[in-house]
Amino acid sequence: MKNFEFHNPTRIVFGAETVGRLDQLIPAQARVLILYGGASAEKTGTLAEVRQALGQRSVQEFGGIEPNPSYETLMRAVQLVRAEQLDFLLAVGGGSVIDGTKFVAAAALYDGEPWEIAEQGGANIRQALPIGTVLTLPATGSEMNSGAVVTRKATQAKLPFRNALLYPRFSVLDPSKTFTLPAKQIANGLVDAYVHTIEQYLTYPVQAHVQDRFAEGLLQTLIEIAPPAVATPDDYATRANLMWTATLALNGLIGAGVPQDWATHMIGHELTALYDIDHARTLALVLPALLDVQRDSKRAKLLQYAARVWDIRSGSEDERITAAIASTRHFFEGLGIPTRLSAYGLGPDAVEAVLRQLQAHGMTALGEHRDIDLARSRRILQAAL
Amino acid sequence: MKNFEFHNPTRIVFGAETVGRLDQLIPAQARVLILYGGASAEKTGTLAEVRQALGQRSVQEFGGIEPNPSYETLMRAVQLVRAEQLDFLLAVGGGSVIDGTKFVAAAALYDGEPWEIAEQGGANIRQALPIGTVLTLPATGSEMNSGAVVTRKATQAKLPFRNALLYPRFSVLDPSKTFTLPAKQIANGLVDAYVHTIEQYLTYPVQAHVQDRFAEGLLQTLIEIAPPAVATPDDYATRANLMWTATLALNGLIGAGVPQDWATHMIGHELTALYDIDHARTLALVLPALLDVQRDSKRAKLLQYAARVWDIRSGSEDERITAAIASTRHFFEGLGIPTRLSAYGLGPDAVEAVLRQLQAHGMTALGEHRDIDLARSRRILQAAL
């Protein structure tokens, strides 16, 4: 096990009928900005519930934060925060809204051009407004971590940043708020949480028994709950497991003390930036191909993954690895999520376009061994055609 | 899954050579009291390392906190804290030292007779001094939770208390600090962490897939690492897994959103108070007997435990349950920890003595169903003879 620090101060308020707790969670004197995405927050009644819980507080609202939240949109929120001297940000939505809120929280107090925050990965954040969240879409884990991703439309750049100042003070997780989500979003959320777990698990062994068992438990849970999660929108228990699993997949716990990969994410980000493919869907495109190309350096963990997660225990090592990768691909496809670029009409030209973006963003040494250079990224993308 | 709140603000600093981090973790102006137990903290050099890390800070020391820390001892520390106006408590030791430090942290600022804190389970704590810990004995999880147990020698009362103000600000976990521990302490630690996990897992199902998988992962890890943990004191990787597993077994995570038992602990506390048997050893006495007596109400989870933790999948339900309980007993006995009261020379008289203590302390409705009354506690204790 590697040395590590783990400190996650976010308070989780989990369960049905918990939105009303906002009244105790946000200071009575706070000047609140509610940030949200599209019309669904209003339509489902969640915004009304939030407004009611905030009572007599001074509240403003900022809607229209898009999937893959853009610098261009978020800077309008930053101007509002500054103009109105707002001092508490409440994100109501999924990972995009929460990520965008994190950018606003840091940018509003940043002394300089806020895009530098993304360019420097958040290392230059010195202060941030406090954030709370009401999660309506389980997937990214942003509700209990300090990271975010922001996109600059003008340059098609999608960059991650993180800083301990960006942990939400609290996150309200009410699984019943997911009942109205389209099945596609649930499928995306399952894949997103699955790949988050894989990025921190499927590397090389460092005798971190607990982290391995926890990661395997998350993967097994996602596989178990996937069918009812998609088929039965109002199955509270299933949605509760999905929500808590997605949070635990990226709250720092399973990644503490172990090597991490994240190459699938970095390559996937470019696919989203270039072709506007949903984040989770880009992960499903890249991961199976990456596991195949990296099967030698990931051999020991791939065999463990095959045995413990998929119960694949017979055949040669390479047969077991191939079967585990096929099971992974089948899991994604079974959720209606393609694992081939051709499903999006993309071919060899797209491979080269992604490589140019990776080069432009300095993504030339990815993965837990930093051995995924542009040549290897090309092999991975070609394997995903 | 039940509704829950999870908020654990303790910062974990984990790994070899991490004691030096104290200099950044404790405010430079702090007036520190180092609290510790016996002579080993000095002999192993840990105290010297701690003193060096604290540099020029004003530091006082209070040694002699005993296993099952006593009110009588701790009140002397309280007097020292008050007289010297100390404002930061640093526990260097295992669960007893940390528990004792939590009592001192609350008692020093308590307006009234501090024993009331134990009598009211901590609900009357309004403020507490900040605490940090340097963990030297993995077992109780006190380094990352808000609970503690304190004993009043005069009345043989051993009472738990908890309050969110008692989370350590940080805990330094250096697995190499455990190399010098006697094998008996390691065996105790393994059993302690195992039973902590069982108390939050082996109740009845509430469709909490993640919590179940995490608990099973902790149990599997403890079973895997037990032989090398005892046999090879300086096996860093094994000790690292033991340390992190014991912390995760009782930091609120696996218990969030699920029913909890704790009857084994409550009965065990009385055995410690009356006969001075090590805490973990009392758990090994009570648990197998309790599982047998409660096999009907715990049936579904006992079967899951049998299958997933012990790979017991054939035979009738009752055969599988019996085999799982036998495996549990065998695991404890294999660590040199008895599971029968007779091993301590205790017989039917002890059963009645424990029952009188349970009655005196109001422990007449224990377990996840509150159905362990004195009659059932008698059956459990008789089954442990």
Plain-language structure description:
- The two termini of chain A are 37 Å apart.
- Chain A has a six-stranded parallel beta sheet with strand order 2-9-6-5-3-4, with helices on both faces. A two-stranded antiparallel ribbon of chain A has the order 7-8.
- Chain A contains 15 helices and nine strands.
- Chain A is an alpha/beta fold and 385 residues long.
- The A-B interface holds A 1-18, 207-210, 213-214, 216-218, 220-221, 224-225, 237-238, 240-241, 244-245, 248, 253, 256-257 and B 1-16, 18, 207-210, 213-214, 216-218, 220-221, 224-225, 237-238, 240-241, 244-245, 248, 253, 256-257.
Topology:
Two copies of one chain form a homodimer.
Chain A: E1 4-6, E2 11-14, H1 22-25, E3 31-36, H2 40-43, H3 46-54, E4 58-62, H4 71-84, E5 88-93, H5 95-107, H6 115-119, E6 131-135, E7 147-152, E8 157-162, E9 170-173, H7 183-201, H8 209-231, H9 236-248, H10 263-275, H11 279-293, H12 299-310, H13 317-334, H14 348-360, H15 374-383
Parallel strand pairs in A: 2-9, 3-4, 3-5, 5-6, 6-9
Antiparallel strand pairs in A: 7-8
Helix pairs in contact in A: 4-5, 7-8, 7-9, 7-11, 8-9, 8-12, 10-11, 10-14, 11-13, 11-15, 12-13, 14-15
